[in-house]
């Protein structure tokens, strides 16, 4: 139960080191996109990579090269999907959500908050975390595509808003943006 053999310990150690090194090399080759803040699509790939590494380490029936091939397939698919999603807005909308407005110029977007299971306390917390002492000083609070919350502080009028791709901002007067 606590120990089977030195051979299994040795295999796990060697395959663990080589599998880890192989994964790091593949991640470096795949570019920064693989390691960025995650949306749901990226999270699935990351979990699959972790599961694959665990399988390589603990299942003696899975050879190291099979595991490394699985890494290449997963990261290769992520590369292809993200490349094609840059060229196709339909594919992009299937794998990524749009940022959504939770709060804008003194008004909470209750429908968006309900849909995303957010409460006002979480919006207030995000504003405080951004160093803004009052809601009157917050221009907008946005739920980003990867789940974090961004807060924009009120500033002098500007020509082009950073809210231009945020779902829900079109319902507000454009001249106020």
UniProtKB/TrEMBL annotation:
Its main location: membrane. GO terms for cellular component: plasma membrane. The keyword Transmembrane helix applies. Residues 87-160 form the YetF C-terminal domain. It comes from the Bacteria. Keywords: Cell membrane, Membrane, Transmembrane, Transmembrane helix. The chain crosses the membrane at residues 6-27, 39-58, 64-81. It is found in: Cell membrane. Belongs to the UPF0702 family. PANTHER family: UPF0702 TRANSMEMBRANE PROTEIN YCAP. This is DUF421 domain-containing protein. It comes from Metabacillus lacus.
């Amino acid at each position: 139960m606590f120990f089977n053999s030195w051979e299994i310990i040795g295999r796990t150690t060697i395959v663990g080191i080589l599998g880890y090194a192989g994964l790091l090399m593949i991640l470096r080759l795949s570019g920064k996109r693989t390691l960025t803040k995650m949306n749901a699509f990226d999270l699935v790939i990351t979990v699959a990579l972790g599961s694959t590494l665990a399988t390589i380490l603990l299942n003696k029936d899975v050879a190291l090269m099979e595991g490394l091939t699985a890494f290449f397939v997963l990261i290769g698919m992520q590369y292809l999907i993200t490349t094609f999603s840059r060229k196709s807005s339909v594919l992009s909308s299937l794998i990524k959500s749009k940022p959504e407005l939770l709060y804008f110029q003194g008004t909470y977007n209750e429908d968006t908050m309900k849909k995303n299971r957010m409460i006002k306390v979480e919006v207030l917390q995000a504003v405080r975390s951004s160093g803004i002492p009052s809601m009157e000083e917050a221009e907008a609070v946005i739920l980003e595509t990867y789940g974090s919350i961004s807060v924009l502080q009120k500033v002098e009028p500007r020509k082009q808003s950073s809210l231009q791709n945020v779902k829900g901002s079109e319902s507000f007067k454009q001249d106020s943006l």
